[in-house]
Amino acid sequence: MKKYLIILSIALAAASCRTGDVFDQPPYSLDTTTKMAGEIVGGAPNYFGHIKSDTVTNLAQGVSLLDLSYLNRNGYAVRLCLYKVVLGTATLGVALPGDDLKADRPSVMAGKLNNEIMVLGAINGDAQASDKAPAGIVYKNGTAVKSTFSDGKGGFIATLKDGTAVIAGQSDYSLYRTSIFNAVGTRERILKDGYPVPEDKAEAKARTFVAVSEDGMTVWLGVVDGVYFYYSNGISCTDLATVLKAAGAWNASLMNSGDVTTLVRRDDLGASLFPVVNSPSSNGTEKESVNALAIIEN
Fold first, then answer.
1. Number of domains within the chain
2. Which of 23, 173, 210, 285 has its CA 20 to 30 A from that of 6?
3. pLDDT in tens, 24-53
4. Which domain holds residue 110?
5. Is the overall model pTM greater than 0.70, yes or no?
């Protein structure tokens, strides 16, 4: 009899820890603390499952950096780092490794460009072709460093001489060629004229990406980390397009992604002027890139 009383006591204690017949669950919420995150989450509610944290750092007038950690709709952890740049007070510049175009780390290239003009942050740029040169075009301050594409993939992101930005494919290059001021090559298009571009196989990976508003006056540069299960599991192209459209983008493309995915920001008080903000999937080690797309203060 005593044995059955003990069992009954345990059962009653367990029942007292739940509401009805459902055990207590973590307090999942889509609440955000920043306006920038709120607009993105509100515009893509079917993608986000729970917001863990969101912070925004204002680097200069018109330049903000969102750091957003969350669970997606399937319960996987994801970390997004996203620059928003309103063109006018700031613009995009091209950071290069050197005259020989050999690859270097984005933080180093940002530092070199900073010797010429005030750099606020940067992401890794284009992929590398078989000859070790950038796969796409490269323009810096109106001069064509590389005016051809090494493969039939991808397109380019450019700031034009009228101060606007554009993301376009290789077939549109002739339309913009004489108007380009700064440009680097891009990889797959993921958002075109406000619509996600269908992907052959949806895979969540580390991504580096760029996006432009319909009027060409706002650009977004960012990364989503991958590989580490409890930290960040990457994102598919379709989901990323959904997130960027919610942010306000009209066109978007991937840059070189995977292990090379890197985002740096200016830190005048740190040990490094351009520390890496994200955690690259190459064991957290910053890898080399053929160029970098930088945010520069006008």
1. 1
2. 23
3. 556 789 999 999 999 999 999 999 999 999
4. 35-297
5. yes
